[in-house]
Every structure is written in structure tokens, then in C-alpha cells.
Design brief:
It contains 12 helices and 7 strands. A hairpin with a 2-residue loop joins strand 5 and strand 6. The strands form 2 sheets. It has a 4-stranded antiparallel beta sheet with strand order 4-3-6-5. Strands 2-1-7 form a 3-stranded antiparallel beta sheet. This is Peptidylprolyl isomerase.
């Protein structure tokens, strides 16, 4: 299931999409379409609608553009499209109203981001939408269907459900608050930095901090982590399981409130200060648990009930070969589209409703 994450349109750097969208546009040209893509109990999906939906996915997450037209995933994407539509139609009036409001807000954020980008990217996006038959109204419809399906599922999660999940999974709510300055093996200009030079500079940064230097100023000046360099290197109450192993281990074991020696990771050297460790309270975790349990309800519908409702599909079937792996599916895992920031929760559902953020934290697990 492709679930919405409301903030990502606002964070999106649309210029990053230009090359991806041009490639997607070229890949989608000249394909002959049949009249129907699928029939299901209560409705049908035309190939025109399905093409527009796949175009929406390409805009929603640029990483999908590389595989969304592959034969091996057509059935999966089509099923998710139908399932989302059925769930949105079944939803309560309250969920429909909330979903429509969220869709309108998200679409406006997209338009605002698009207005602020360069002419070449605007043209690339416009060309992609036109070639794929994706109108503004259709985009809002697809956004609304996803928000409505998720909101309706979340509304059915009870406080008892949330309490039970929290009690059984307390370890997954552990957090670390940490500051770090990364001296990367690739600098801000994309140039390679030798390990010895990175370590030397990291030691210099540590000395400046030991001498009373300001984290905010030094992170902004030196850190190659674009996800934290503008806020003093801070990741607050972050899930350590999202981090590369070396950074995670240091964050979980370093003494509190001490400036560390440089910690080596696959990205370079981190000068770190762990400010707190703990476990998020139930109140702090309710929203993420509700989202997770709502997503699980949707996934159960997709796997158990939906196949019985689809009567006929007219798209290529997935190959049984090992190459048709789960990773090809846009719903493969939360990690497929969760924020690369180490503060991104592992329980965050994948998003198909917003462009991905252009900056990924270099401490995020690969």
C-alpha cells in the first residue's frame, strides 16, 4: 500500500526530479494501450487511468520512475490502485472530508514548490504529466484516495490496540538525542576527500569544540551531513536503528554529554555528543503506532480480501523468477521511502504522495 506522508511535498526539492522525469518521459513514449486495465467488483480501471496513476507515482517518488513501467510490477501497482480506490469509497464521511482537506493542502504545497523551481524542471514535470495523462484534478483525486484510505484505517485503531502494541514492542521506541559533525569522504562540493585528510580535519573540529566552540556555527561550517548541518548537527529523539552500524553503536554507548573522538563510519568521521537516551512514552508514540496499525489493516485488506474482488486484469503478470523480487514493488517496505534522516521512524509507512527529499542524511542506514 502506498500511504501518504503529509510533509514531504513541502520539503521536496523539485529540481532533483528533472533528470529522472526526462528519463521516465522517454521510457513511456510510444506505448500502445488497451482499453481496460482491470475489472473488479463494482468498477473498472481503464489503461488511461492506470497510465495517469503511474505518472502520479513517478512524480510522487522519483525512485519509482526507474521501475514503475516494468512488466514485473504492473500487477502489483494495479492491485494497489484498485485497493486504495475501494477503501476510499468504503470510508466514513469524516475520513473522506479529512482526506479531501489533506489532499488539497498537499496539492497546494506541490504547486508552491513547483512555482519556486527553475523553468527546465517545470517543463520536465509538465511534459511528464501531459504524456501520462495526469491532470491536476486526477492528481488531487489520487492524493485524496490515499489520504482517505489511510485516515479511515487509522480511525478504526483503538486506544487498546495502541497500548497493546506499545507494551509488546517497547524496544522499538528507544531513542537517542545526538549532535554530530560529519567530515565526509566526499565534501560538500562532491569532491573526494582522503581518509587521512578527513580524520585530520575531524580532530581539528573536535579541538575547536573542546575549546568551547559553538556547535551550531561549527556544524554549519564543517559538517557534510546536509540533514543536520543547519541545526547544530542535532538529531533529537531519533530512532538509532535507522543509522549505519558504526554511528548507531557509538550513539548507544558513548558517555552522555561528552565530545567524542572522531568515530569512523562508511561516510567518513563523526565528532559526536550524545545528549540523551531513553524510551519514548506511550503519548509520544501514539501517532506513529496508529499510523502503523492503520497501515497493517490496509495491507491485510490488500493481501486477503482484494484478490477476491478483482475479476480480471489486462496487464503483464509478474515473473516467477528471482528477479521479480519484493524490492521491485513500491510497497516493499517502510524503508523504501521513509525519510533517509536518522530521525525517521522505522514505523513510518512508505509514501507515494510526495516527491522525495533531495537530501539524504549520510548517517542513515543504507
Amino acid at each position: 500500500m502506498l500511504h501518504p506522508e503529509r510533509g514531504r511535498w513541502r520539503r521536496a526539492g523539485l529540481a532533483l526530479l528533472a533528470a529522472v522525469l526526462l528519463a521516465a518521459l522517454a521510457a513511456g513514449c510510444g506505448k500502445k494501450e488497451n482499453k481496460l486495465a482491470a475489472e473488479y467488483d463494482g468498477g473498472q480501471i481503464t489503461t488511461k487511468e492506470f497510465t495517469a496513476y503511474k505518472t502520479f507515482l513517478k512524480l510522487a517518488n522519483p525512485s519509482y520512475a526507474s521501475f514503475v513501467d516494468e512488466d514485473s510490477v504492473q500487477e502489483t501497482i494495479l492491485q494497489q490502485f484498485i485497493g486504495t480506490r475501494i477503501l476510499s469509497e468504503r470510508a466514513t464521511d469524516d475520513a473522506k472530508k479529512k482526506g479531501e482537506d489533506s489532499a488539497n493542502q498537499t496539492f497546494k504545497s506541490f504547486q508552491d514548490s513547483l512555482a519556486a523551481t527553475d523553468a527546465e524542471t517545470k517543463q520536465s514535470i509538465d511534459d511528464l504529466m501531459k504524456s501520462g495523462g495526469l491532470t491536476d484534478d486526477l492528481m488531487k483525486t489520487y492524493l485524496k484516495e490515499q489520504f482517505v484510505a489511510q485516515d479511515d484505517a487509522e480511525a478504526k485503531v483503538t486506544d487498546a490496540d495502541i497500548q497493546s502494541y506499545y507494551d509488546k514492542n517497547k524496544d522499538s521506541f528507544k531513542y537517542v538525542t545526538v549532535r554530530h559533525i560529519l567530515i565526509g569522504l566526499t565534501d560538500k562540493d562532491g569532491k573526494t576527500r582522503e581518509k587521512a585528510d578527513a580524520l585530520k580535519l575531524a580532530n581539528e573540529v573536535k579541538q575547536k569544540l573542546d575549546d568551547g566552540g559553538d556547535w551550531t556555527a561549527l556544524a554549519k561550517q564543517y559538517s557534510d551531513d546536509t540533514g543536520s548541518s543547519e541545526n547544530g548537527g542535532l538529531y533529537e529523539k531519533a530512532d538509532p536503528s535507522q543509522w549505519v552500524e558504526e554511528f548507531k553503536n557509538a550513539a548507544e554507548t558513548l558517555p552522555l554529554n561528552q565530545i567524542s573522538d572522531p568515530v569512523e563510519s562508511t561516510y567518513g568521521y563523526h565528532v559526536m555528543k550524545v545528549e540523551a537516551r531513553g524510551t519514548k512514552t506511550l503519548d509520544e508514540s501514539k501517532t506513529s503506532i496508529r499510523t502503523l496499525l492503520g497501515s497493517q489493516t490496509i495491507d491485510k485488506f490488500m493481501s486477503d480480501e482484494l484478490p477476491k474482488l478483482i475479476t480480471k486484469t489486462y496487464v503483464p503478470k509478474p515473473s516467477p523468477s528471482p528477479s521479480a523480487s519484493a524490492s521491485a514493488s513500491p510497497s516493499a517496505s517502510a524503508g523504501a521511502s521513509a525519510s533517509a534522516s536518522p530521525s525517521g521512524s522505522a514505523s513510518a509507512p512508505p509514501s507515494a504522495s510526495a516527491p522525495a527529499s533531495p537530501s539524504e542524511s549520510p548517517v542513515a542506514s543504507k
